[in-house]
Amino acid sequence: MSDDCIFCSIVAGDIPARTVHETDAVLAFLDANPLARGHTLVIPKSHARHVGDLDADLASDLFDAVAALTPRIEATVDADGANVGVNDGEAAGQEVPHVHVHIVPRFEGDGGTAIHAVAGARPDLSDDELDAVADEVATAMAE
């Protein structure tokens, strides 16, 4: 745990939260500043700043919880869908430096947009540029 992390303080019980699900590895609670009714955060209990800091077991536990919670949250608040997302790093809008997955229930006509809207203007990439990026990522994964 990190001494200066609000989510670690929630896990430790030092800060109250509206817990909706808990396992040995994962905690899920309602967002204190929700974007919609039922907006839930799912976090690993152990401190990890970025998605890449999660080991395979913890990543699996985290996303198993997300997969189980999402349809139940949608049903509970009678949502028409949900955005599920992770802001990984400050440049991506991560405000709390502890991995967390947002489950944001969505409703027809709520004025929200698709997850694609968070990235701003789309780059104009050629097929060669796309091929190069794909090759570089595949090579990095093989290392």
TrEMBL record:
Active site: H100 (tele-amp-histidine intermediate)
Start and end residues of each HIT domain: 6-113
GO MF annotation terms: hydrolase activity
PROSITE patterns given in the database record: HIT_1, HIT_2
Species lineage: Archaea, Methanobacteriati, Methanobacteriota, Stenosarchaea group, Halobacteria
Keyword Hydrolase assigned: yes
Species name: Halorubrum tropicale
Keywords recorded for this protein, A-Z: Hydrolase
InterPro entries: HINT, Histidine_triad_CS, Histidine_triad_HIT, HIT-like, HIT-like_sf
Pfam families assigned: HIT (PF01230)
Gene3D superfamilies the UniProt entry points to: HIT-like
Keyword Zinc-finger recorded: no
Motif Histidine triad motif location, chain numbering: 98-102
Source organism, top-level taxon: Archaea
Protein name: HIT family hydrolase
Any one of the GO BP annotations: nucleotide metabolic process
